[in-house]
Amino acid sequence: MKKVAKYTLIVFGLLFFIACMFIFRPVPILFEKDAIIKEGIVSKIYEGQGNDVVFVLENNQQRYYINRGLENGLNLNNLKEKLIGKPIVVKYPKHWTPLDWNSTVKHISKVEFADEVIYNEFRT
Length: 124
Hints:
Keywords: Membrane, Transmembrane, Transmembrane helix. The chain is α+β, with helices and mostly antiparallel strands.
């Protein structure tokens, strides 16, 4: 009986480890040519958890965020003044995690407005 319990514990431990790898894996930083591109008019910009900058686009249920954007020099008030009601282009990697199983939140790798790059973390 003790041998079965030991193997059961090992199996559950391995399954837990594999699940943690899927849940906590980092968002990939890739080349721009590999990104998904979305265009839309900004309806809302707000601060998310961990100093993230979150963008909401009109007629789009997804939320797009710049991880630690406020810590990386972005100013929320300036972004609101400049971008609300205006069209932007967001580029992001294809990434799935069980914490966002229905893919409603996307990590932004690049934000473009007119001919200006607002934010960029792509590899060069």
